[in-house]
Amino acid sequence: MKSKIRELRKKNKISQDELALAVGVTRQTITSLECEKYTASLVLAYKIARYFNMTIEEIFDFSDVEEL
Predict the structure, then answer these.
(1) Rounded to an integer, what distance in angstroms lies between the CA atom of residue 53 and that of residue 29?
(2) What is the band of 62 on the pLDDT scale with cuts at 50, 70, 90?
(3) Quick one: pLDDT at residue 64?
(4) How large is the C-alpha radius of gyration of the chain?
(5) β partners of residue 3
(6) Band of the pLDDT at 65, cuts 50, 70, 90?
(7) What is the pTM assigned to this prediction?
(8) Which residues sit opposite 60 in a β-bridge?
(9) Cα–Cα distance between 23 and 68 in angstroms, integer?
(10) pLDDT band at residue 1, thresholds of 50, 70 and 90?
(11) In the chain, where does DSSP find H-type helix?
């Protein structure tokens, strides 16, 4: 799943370590999210969105998710 995490981090001059600490995950998790190797849980997506004061939909691209 695509996300805007990397660009938001860089825009706000936040390291992967800083973001990881703020949302309670490892730096490797942030790296995996940015490289699209990992999909965030709903709770993690919520924490990241809250951290950047945005909605989940503003950060994560759901266009490739199949509808029921």
Answers:
(1) 20
(2) confident
(3) 77
(4) 11
(5) 60
(6) confident
(7) 0.90
(8) 3
(9) 30
(10) confident
(11) 5-11, 16-23, 27-34, 42-51, 56-59
Q: Check residue 40 and give its pLDDT.
A: 95
Q: Which two tokens stand for residue 29?
A: 């998790």
In the prediction, which pLDDT does 23 show? Answer: 98
Is residue 67 within 8 Å of residue 24, measured between CB atoms? no
- The residue behind tokens 């999210």 is 33
For residue 55, how many other CB atoms are within 10 A of its CB? 12
29 within 8 A of 38, measured Cβ to Cβ = yes
- Collapse the DSSP code of 17 into the 3-class scheme (helix H, G, I; strand E, B; otherwise coil) and give the result: helix
* 55: its two tokens: 């909605």
* Torsion sign across C-alpha atoms 54, 55, 58, 64: positive
